[in-house]
Specification:
Blueprint lengths: L13 E5 L3 H12 L3 E5 L5 H4 L7 E4 L4 H6 L2 E4 L4 H13 L4 E3 L12 E5 L2 E5 L6 H14 L4 H9 L2 H7 L3 H12 L2 H7 L3 H17 L7 E6 L10 H9 L2 E4 L5 H4 L7 E4 L2 E2 L2 E2 L3 H13 L3 E6 L9 H10 L4 E4 L4 H9 L11 E6 L11 H4 L4 E6 L5 H10 L7 E6 L7 E6 L3 H8 L5 E5 L6 H4 L4
Helix pairs in contact: 9-10, 13-14
Length: 460
Amino acid sequence: MEFLPLFFDLKESTALVFGASDAAARKVEVLLKAKCRVSLVAETLNKSLNEHLDSPLFKHYSNVDDGLWAAAHIVVAATDDASVDERISDTAKAKKLPVNVVNRADLSNFVFPSIIDRSPIIAAVSSSGELPVLTRLLRNRLEATIPHAFGRLAIIARKYRTEVKQQITAINTRRNFWESVLEGRFADLVFSGQEEAAENELREKLDQQLSNKNQVEGEVYLVGAGPGDPDLLTFKALRLIRQADVVLYDRLVSEPILALVRQDAEKINVGKERANHLVPQESINSLLVKYAKEGKRVLRLKGGDPFIFGRGGEEIETLAEEGVTFQVVPGITAASGCAAYSGIPLTHRDYSQSVRFITGHLKNNTCDLPWEEFVHENQTLVFYMGLTGLPTICQSLTDHGMDTDKPIALISKGTTRDQKVLVGTLSNISEMAVQAKVNAPTLIIIGDVVNLREKLQWFS
């Protein structure tokens, strides 16, 4: 992270701004909106800056002196003269003053973000001064999704904050209450301008909550996190990830997806590897029940899809027996995601009319599989967790009649920036994997569709 985003109260502070450029005018306008005093140093003023002369917070100076430097709390350089801006930056840093040189992140120790103003709600977006166009594009997207009345929502809700805190003392129950209010009819009424009706709705919600204050009910969300790329999450998965109180996550859940979890949520790594179960499955089941019965919203986050070799069925079976409320959110399974990102269609009218998903890691730690059923033309085989047993898989298929030249692909860390694809045949892939030092997690695809990768690969 190049710059740490912070929000400062600049009232009673003074910004020393250099330059009469359009960029300087934009910075002055933002500073004045924040109720910051502005001392502008420039020989002349442009039209935009002239409009601020009547403001008691704005003063114009033709030259800078020691008094202006001594009164400054922050410095902005926007003179359109690179050498002058550099000298201003050096002076400000020598005086230990925060300085921004417009369009020169290398000379700045703070930057101005693009701002979405829904006061008192403020959102800011920055590219660390590197690509302002991209920042503006992202700000425009946020502007389109955040209602203009969002600030009114905060102002009205704030009136009841103390009362709600006093009446609902349990923090998780209080959080659930506010989320149900702020995402429900109360918000809809505010956004449509019916503020009196909105307040009545909030009061009714609070009364209902207090009448049922001893009935704290938790819930479990069994969510598929997909194969790794956070952009492949469903909208529902993202919403539940952000509101969970406790998160039990697997080894295959990527870091960018874990970063979406609320910072104050409790995160528990229950990842499992071959022959190394960090937390036994029975303990995971018990933890889900325990936290839910404590009234918490529990996120069980699994790589891929929870119902495809994810043991999700075992977990919700326990929840159902214990009477715990739960919901299941499917995710893009590794076979679908990795195949798509490697340019290998799992089915194709000319090459494959069926696909089989197979686990290479059985409950009895063997590869005791119905191999004869796998040896058919026009079929694609996908092996999950099969890297350790790769030589056995290849040998067993050829022993049951599959051509030794049958194409096979190994996809490691699929859909992520670290994705690697290794293509060979049943006869040579095991040796290739050793030489290439392929590591888990790796998906195996076998079939004639693998040959299409050369033409269809796009993510590389």
